[in-house]
């Protein structure tokens, strides 16, 4: 741990956790990686190394899968649904009890403001686990009446069982580490699956801490295994492993496509939550103050490093200038700083490479003739900081309007008195279809426009309304399947139909 990390205003427990060289968590034990490789973990707000992890090899992934298989066929299979509920509720309680350390680790690892870290833990991660704990006892099959012409001729019983698919591989992104971990861990445990989890190698700290809590909660050894490592090594091994029956991935569309190719070997189930370029459509009767703050949150939440980000702002021409002036005014006054500073509203980007990538889009916007309204600069100080940025242009023919930037860059465009279908066609002019929002006081217009936007999730007078019970996922190049809610259980389950013949049919 660096001298900088030692002087941070963090708890003793967090400081002690950072001081370790972190191993892999396999079969309930902390074990050394066979690769012998380590990686320093960097605080994006200071550029200082704050901790070090060991990196998993393909052999390590194999060991984790073997442990997960043994647990799936052994002790975990003997634990009933009521017991699974109790174990999950215990884990959720432990997460809440450790919120200070978890929040500090999330801030140091990822850079997000402390307020958001605390929210994603207590207001999301633990509640998400509790929500799915409630599903453990409600997963069931059906009895099915067969047709008179069926082979059993009515003198039979046919029923279905919902069974866990087996060992699940989960690949976690760096933009919301603990939230994404909970999102994949909870439905897997609820359905009775076991897991091999690969956190993003640059943000593994909260996942490592949660493994301690998994052990403390009494979840049997081998049910949850953690293999931090590079995507091209550990992630690729998970995606192609013949004994992993399902992969859940959140990340870029390009990597998602590679995972699909790797999964072909054993035709494993794949669920993907990928990129986005979500539209925010504002009609002239909308509450401008609400729109202003809604657009700010939609575009700049997590420094714009989130797949749901509302990065394409469509505003009716009658209020366009006012909305742009308001958004620029708020964005320009946002406090940019380290997440541990309680006054910070916008933290750093995750890395120097990510900031360079985002800044290249800013330059592309300028080069292609978009008008820079505010921001557009990186900060000349330690940390990977940049200003929230707003561009406008009359058309979506510029790169910043088409491609996912994954940074605090908002593109705004006016529209006129067109019919809703024409406006929706502009909003849908994207390869992505993850989220979106409509802002209006006319509920009929709001509902109609929401129905026309081709996204897996659309909100009216808010953006990215998420809740454990609301299904979430993308259309088009934004992914496959749904997470959250009852639908989030489906990828972890398979259906078995059984028919019992009572008497031979007369022929």
Plain-language structure description:
Helices cover 38% and strands 19% of the residues. It is α/β, with parallel strands linked by helices. The strands form six sheets. It has a seven-stranded mixed sheet with strand order 14-15-16-13-12-18-19, sandwiched between helices. A six-stranded mixed sheet has the order 9-8-7-10-11-21, sandwiched between helices. The longest helix is centred in the first third of the chain and has 20 residues, at 114-133.
Which regions have little confidence, pLDDT < 50, spanning 5+ residues? 1-6
The Cα radius of gyration reads 24 Å
The biggest sheet amounts to:
7 strands, mixed
Anisotropy-based shape: globular
Strand content: 15-25%
CATH class of the largest domain: Alpha Beta
Give the helix tally.
Answer: 17
CATH architecture of the largest domain: 3-Layer(aba) Sandwich
Terminus-to-terminus distance = 79 Å
Averaging pLDDT over every residue, what do you get? 95
Give the total of domains: 2
Adjacency order of strands in the biggest sheet: 14-15-16-13-12-18-19
Number of strands: 22
CATH-assigned fold name of the largest domain: Aldehyde Dehydrogenase, Chain A, domain 1
